[in-house]
């Protein structure tokens, strides 16, 4: 009998006697062993001298003899051979095979008992090693393992408390499954696959590696692929592992290959797409059968894609989806449109599908009538896509839609959009209004849209959406009207005055305390762009109580009671502009004067001069102060002289009036910011002077205009100039003159300088400043006639031009 045939394991080795005792196997006969390998022979062959060897081993021996230049000899007898012919020992081979089957059956029976009873870890590992050894011989041996019904026992070992046992069980099941369909299907019974998946997320590193290797093997079966995909979370975990940066490279590769196998099942492809792995779906979308393509497109339309995925789909399948949208069946077009709606919602992917030619067929679908037209539910999707494309910022006006070279901003196309808006449901109306909002947000296209609105007479119908019950539709219409209001302010004002309800609706939007700040900002912006000097519109706003509401909102924002977001500043700009309307009707509307006084608006506007970064708020506040200040000379309270009485007439010594203190130096009466809107008494001058250094010329112009009201006729010019000196305002005004930013600003500066130079002391000081002289000379030479006349007067004050009027007065 030969030496022991050891079965090695992590737990040690067993001698032949111990193993025989545990497994009840038949002894290994000496004739079964190859003298060269000392292993049981599988393909025994006999030499001319009757010695038997394993074919592979003796062929290797002969090769070594030839390579060394020796004559072939028998390894056992060491005698020279005359022939190296090998004769198969069929009888011995059959005997060995029968012995092997009996022996393996006994071993598997012992393994089954070890796996089914409360065996030790060592016994279980020994049994698993045995199953591996048998399975690795050839496929027929795997059938022996399968028939011995040890697979369910091994699967149960996956729940063992020993990590070694769990890992060895995973490895054993994989080895048994390799290349054997019957064994794989046996493993699909019960919760084996679910248990394996758990190892992917909860197992330790080695268990995880064995589990993914095992799943890869199982995934080669299409039947098991569907089973694996049906386990909750399996595909998501594998997708995560395939893209992991922390897993070892081999695990990542096996996860990737497993997913490739699982992708052969369409239901798995959908799951992968839902979990961010889109390539298999896109492949089927491009290469699958028409039915598969339709199914994948429909799936794609229902997915919520990340921005990166949208770009991937646009690049990979954008053209195919557009082709389907153009000429597919109604069902296919619906799937394609839904997919394109998703893709177009991200700026980068929207640009890609625009480049691939989506715009012409999309517009055609929207405007189509008759048998080929889309149902309204799909026109809504088309309108959504178009709104997304416009929002992407691409220069759509350069893309021709037909052979006539019409574009999306051509008058007839915009008129068709307006017609659709008036004849569809709220959902489509909202999306098409969003298209117009996008087109009117660009300075390059807004005038085309305005022209089409005018030519189609759509102003009234657009205004009516302000009263829509659907918030999104209402907000979108207000934003559109806000965008076109700088170009159609007069038409919009007339439309508001000619209809009932819309103006009140806008005011109610502003009034809501819990309303959408975006909607409120758009409503305030729209009202702010209407002609500010229109007394009829201002009267309507007064009647609606709009200004009390606006004052309340401005106060809340200034006090920090309004939540801060990106719409707060535009909202405040609109509110302040609406409020400033009051200051343009002070002469004819006593109610407007009363509101300004009651709410002390002069102080509000003065404080808002310091809102750096909000140029429009500063500009509007300064203009409002200009209008208020012009009323100061009418509102200042001039003290009435006391009646001297009879005694004073007889005795003049009693007629001495006591001096009145506290009178305004400019207006000569009792002034305040609240009652008479006096800039001097309201301490506004210093803040106006600070605005003269602003980089925005409009702020400077408005601030200077407000300051100039103190220098106007009918007031004490000397006192006004002195107050400007005290406020350190003379030099900033002169600086504005020398900077010469705009013609309007130059005129305003020269007007102020000419008034200031009427004071001899200042004229004398300024006469030596060459920069001032040069600026006035330039204006005298090159400015318009009105500015030129002012410059001439100023030059005379500083003796740069002869003052002939003084000579003529002396001669007279």
From TrEMBL:
SUPFAM superfamilies for this protein: ARM repeat, RING/U-box
Entries under Pfam families matching the protein: U-box
Entry's Gene Ontology BP terms: protein ubiquitination
EC numbers, comma separated: 2.3.2.27
Ranges for domain U-box: 27-106
PROSITE patterns recorded: U_BOX
GO MF annotation list: ubiquitin protein ligase activity
Catalysed reactions listed for this entry: S-ubiquitinyl-[E2 ubiquitin-conjugating enzyme]-L-cysteine + [acceptor protein]-L-lysine = [E2 ubiquitin-conjugating enzyme]-L-cysteine + N(6)-ubiquitinyl-[acceptor protein]-L-lysine
Matching InterPro entries: ARM-like, ARM-type_fold, Armadillo, RING-Ubox_PUB, U-box_domain_protein, Ubox_domain, Znf_RING/FYVE/PHD
Signal peptide: none
Alphabetized UniProt keyword annotations: Transferase
Pathway noted in the entry: Protein modification; protein ubiquitination
Name listed for the protein in its UniProt record: RING-type E3 ubiquitin transferase
Organism: Colocasia esculenta (Wild taro)
